[in-house]
Amino acid sequence: MLSLATVSAGYGGFQALFDVSLEVKAGESVAVIGPNGAGKTTLLRVISKLIDARTGEISMEGRRMNDVLSHEVIGYGIAHVPENRRLFAKLSVEDNLRMGAFMPAARAKYAERLEFVYSLFPRMRERRNQIAGTLSGGEQQMCAIGRALMSGPKLLLLDEPSAGLAPVVVQSIFELVRRICNEGYTVLIVEQNIRQVLKVVHRAYLLETGRIKLSGTSDELLESELIKKAYLGL
Amino acid sequence: MEIFDIFLLEAIVNGLLLGGVLALLALGLNLIFGVIDVVWICYAELVMIGMYAVFYGHNVFGWPLWLAMLAAILAVAVLGAVLHQFVIRPVLAAEPINQLLVTGGVLFFLQAVATLAFGVDFRNVGVNLPALQLGGMYLSFARLIAFLVALGGMVGVYLFLTKTFLGTAIRAISQDRAIMPLMGVNPNRIFVITSALGGGLAGLAACLLVLQYDIHPAIGLTFGPITFLICVLGGLGNMVGGFIAAFIFAQFISVGGFFLHIEWGYVIAFLFFIAMMFWRPQGILGGK
Fold it and tell me: Could you tell me the pTM of the whole model?
């Protein structure tokens, strides 16, 4: 579905990604794991065209995306839940969800998808008129994921959904991610919380200082000596 | 004593009517500032252009008044979009002081162009609406219409901002410009639409003011400073604050003018503004 071939990117004089190649197949859930500053967020930003790839090729369902503008990416069926959720803090939950359905094609299905998001996250239905900035961290993450789902995406990009959340909540967020995968969405998730995320996804890539160091199924990575030693503390 | 009370009541009601139009003016400026974060110092000059547009449509081309007014609203809406695209957009990332100066430049530019194109003569659309007698009070019919239409316009903007996808995007973009593309929103498109809406509101205000004032190239100076001060008093960018501040200001002008002299009304209103800046520089409903 999504494929990146030898993509490099960076900010000014700083290069964050070096020849990154990866593939996400339809129906799969894939994680990109790695330490802070490895370039994980940059990777998602390149896919969403928030920054341009310097070299390499990005394509979605066989369509080349290099020259697509950032606000056109959603039209390719890609929805991005950004780092730190980035809700519209002063708008209500429902207004935030409405923004997710901004595209004309999504507006037509607004009521239906709103119902779907509310059935997925009943908490959001209870809080629909609450100002998003006053939600708890976990609820904000639900709202951010709900907002992305409102566009009816084929591929969901999740940037560190567990970041900044209390350990108890982190558990429930991964449960949520698992449910979304089970709903049939294709998911590309970026995470530092390696042990948890590998329990949820099918496959993963290890990104270190902008380079893919390792890739394989979740079980393979959990068994790998490199990951065990450096990231799982075993 | 009874006569005195009736006149005071008349002054209060007139202040209320004036407040409606001032609130409409403030709404346009606040909308632009709240969304784009740029103050259109030249806002009242857009109103001036709109007033000339009504005059030319109605008195020169001979169109019916409603058509001239509709054309004026559209013309100023287009002018607002053009202003954004060619003047504001290039300085969006610049220092606020530069943004202020460039719209200040547009203010004098529009005045000069109007002088060149229309001359310095005072023009009047020549529509004389009767005064309304209401229980011993005399109220200007033009002001009453202006008040009602301004109120209607504001309700329309409120519904647009809260009930539509585009309106929601306009409220959202003022909070987080950078992530709008993730929802398929082209930020510049939203800015142009907002600017056209702000311009359209200036055009609507022009239609209302043209019934009460003569038109000349410097007419913007009558409304510009006061509109800006109302916005600051309410909290720049805060549309509800601007609405409240407009009515406060209007009462100072109207009631202050009643007790002393009309010019004194303005003196008191501006003094009040200065005092408020010491006490609440962020404005009545402003944050931070």
Answer: 0.89
